[in-house]
Amino acid sequence: MKRSKKRSQKETKHSSLIIRWVSIVALTIMVSFIVFSVIIYSFVGQQSMVQQKETSNEMVSKLNSSLNRIPNQLEIANVVPALTPSTREVLKGNPPIGSDERKSSAFNDDLLSSLTNPDLSVVVYNLRQEDVFDNGGKILPFKKIKSDYEMTRVNKNHKQELITYQKVRAAHSGKVTGYIVVANKMTYYNGLMKDLLKWMVRISLIAIVFFTLVAYIIVRDIVKPVKEMSRVAMEVNDDPNSTVRIRDFHRHDELQELAVSFNQMLDRMQRYIDQQKEFVGDVSHELRTPVAVIEGHLNMLKRWGKDDPEILEESIDASLQEAKRMQHLIQEMLDLTRAEQINVQYPNAVTKVSDVLKRVVGDMSLVHKDFVIRLDMDDLPIATEVQIYQGHLEQLLVILIDNGIKYSTDRKEINVSAGLSQDDVHIIVQDFGEGISEKEQSKIFNRFYRVDKARTREKGGNGLGLSIAQKLVTSYHGKISVESVEGQGSQFIMQFPALSKAQSKKLHKREQAEKAKKDKKETN
Ligand code: ADP
Predict the structure, then answer these.
(1) In sequence order, what are the residues at sequence separation of 6 or more whose Cβ sits closer than 8 angstroms to the Cβ of residue 105?
(2) Rounded to two decimals, what is the model's pTM?
């Protein structure tokens, strides 16, 4: 119950991830659209307003150029003839302008057509602020202005209007004779701006809904695998032995890669857990025998042995032997654990194979004087080097030669040979002992595996030597194998990639740099 509550809380967090991402996308689109719309709106508005101002100014300047020819104060009597050419002609005593004459440039008075523009309301005031002319449009109230010209924008019922004031000055005297007031309703401008705003809001809303939907689909597609990974992680967290894994997402992207790595990590973790369990089981099993033997002897001593020098001697010897065996076992277990971390410890170690072979064979011959240990390096160029820590190559040779000696029969001979073929170094340790059956050959590299438990124990074997050897060899990218015939003998073959001169130089350099770094750290 508690767990499901916890889980649903975690799941809410995940869904909030979708909400967060979608909101961010929607907000970004909304802001971008608003900014874009504002820019377009103000740009179109500005351009259109320039046109409207031009229309108003044109009207004002046409009126002004007709009215400033009047020398006296503006009155109906002088303004009307000045503004309508037909009236002017009639007043001069001529017949009204005919349609043919009107077409000619002299009488083509576009002032008239401007005056009939329904957007424009024109009023001419005299100095007494009386309306002396208007084009029938709205009568705008008189307003005193300081300068000769003034243009203002007024907002009425969400509609803009442009009002222009102009003082009329007589051309020859420069005296103010009247005032012109032109109001521009800007129907086109107001309509355009209204439509533009309406469409922009519509398009923005559609875009926000559409992109939010698209964003939701995309984000959900991304979050789904993340959710699945989280579910698997939680399940494994609850039960480390769980075999649940992330299923294939059928996609070729980073998320699929992550899922594969995640599964590999879980498999590896599982393997470690299994190994750990197995190891603890094996170790306790292995330690049980020597502890039981020591306990048995101590009990015997306690009961009768103290007074019997023979039993005393025998029990102490046996206990000491078991203690030694335990010590040996613990050392081997430590070696096994260390063998798993080699790459981290000695990443740049380089070893000259011939030197190590000579040294180990020499040492082993000294210790086992009853054995003939031969060394054959005819096929190995003397300078051949491999990427391995010297101490580990020595350890490997000791394990194999020691086994050859341990499991020998009458023929007390060991042959160690080395050679180079196709960029690989082969090291072979051959004995003529009891041999290993084909069935057993695949098992001898397993931890604590012994072909004949009782006999091996007699010989001091714990079944860890080959297991350590295999871990070491594979850690250095090598291979180890066995060829054996029961009753005739065995040969163990190790194979390592040989280093080219350039590779070895590079590794030597790195090793030196590493060493210098370490020394520096220590002195600090
Ligand atoms: P141990 O310490 O018992 O020798 P190893 O892991 O080295 O453990 O070997 C595992 C088993 O493989 C040994 O118990 C032995 O039965 C068998 N074995 C190993 N090397 C040889 C060999 N050279 N000849 C015959 N049997 C061998």
Answers:
(1) none
(2) 0.55
Task: Give me the pLDDT at residue 120, please.
Answer: 87
Statement: residue 98 has pLDDT above 70: no
CA of 392 to the centre of ligand 1 (A): 19
Q: The domain containing residue 421 runs over which residues?
A: 346-506
- Two tokens at 421? 């073929």
Residue 294 lies in a domain: no
How many CA atoms lie less than 13 Å away from 309 in the CB half-sphere?
A: 0
The segment with the largest mean pLDDT, out of 221-225, 292-296, 320-324, 399-403, is 399-403
CATH number at residue 122: 3.30.450.20
At 86 the pLDDT is: 54
Confidence check: pLDDT of 313 > 90: no
Cβ 85 under 6 angstroms from ligand 1: no
- In 3D, which of 449, 479, 494, 472 has the Cα closest to residue 337? 472
Provide the token pair at 113.
């057509």
Q: Which amino acid is at 110?
A: D
Q: Which residues lie closer than 8 Å to 255 by C-beta, 6 or more apart?
A: 222, 225, 226, 249
Q: Which of 195, 218, 245 is the last residue of a domain?
A: 195
Atom of ligand 1 nearest to the CA of 450: 14
> What total number of domains does the chain contain?
2
User: Is pLDDT of 379 > 90?
Assistant: yes
Is 520 or 100 the better-scoring residue by pLDDT? 520
State in Å: Cα 420 to ligand 1 middle.
27
User: 391 C-alpha vs ligand 1 centroid, how far in Å?
Assistant: 21
Mean pLDDT lowest among 94-98, 334-338, 433-437, 487-491: 94-98
User: Quick one: which atom of ligand 1 is closest to the CA of 467?
Assistant: 6
Does ligand 1 come within 6 angstroms of the Cβ of 471? no
Domain assignment of residue 488, yes or no: yes
How much is the average pLDDT of 507-512?
87
CA 402 to ligand 1 centroid distance, Å:
9
**Ligand 1 mutation pick, 371, 446, 466, 483, max ligand atoms within 8 A of CB:** 466
The answer to the question of residue 448 being in a domain is: yes
Whether ligand 1 lies within 6 angstroms of the CB of 436 is answered as yes
Q: Residue 481 belongs to a domain with what CATH number?
A: 3.30.565.10
Q: By alpha-carbon position, which residue is closest to atom 8 of ligand 1?
A: 463
Determine phi and psi for 116, rounding to 5 degrees: -90, 0
DSSP 488: T
Taking alpha carbons only, the member of 458, 440, 462 closest to residue 283 is: 462
- Residue 328 within a domain: no
Q: Which of 195, 210, 239 is the last residue of a domain?
A: 195
pLDDT value of position 171: 86
Give tens-digit pLDDT for 163-197: 999 999 998 888 999 999 999 999 999 999 999 99
User: Which of 416, 456, 491 gets mutated to test ligand 1 (max ligand atoms within 8 A of its CB)?
Assistant: 456
Residue 212 · residue 24 · CB < 8 Å = no
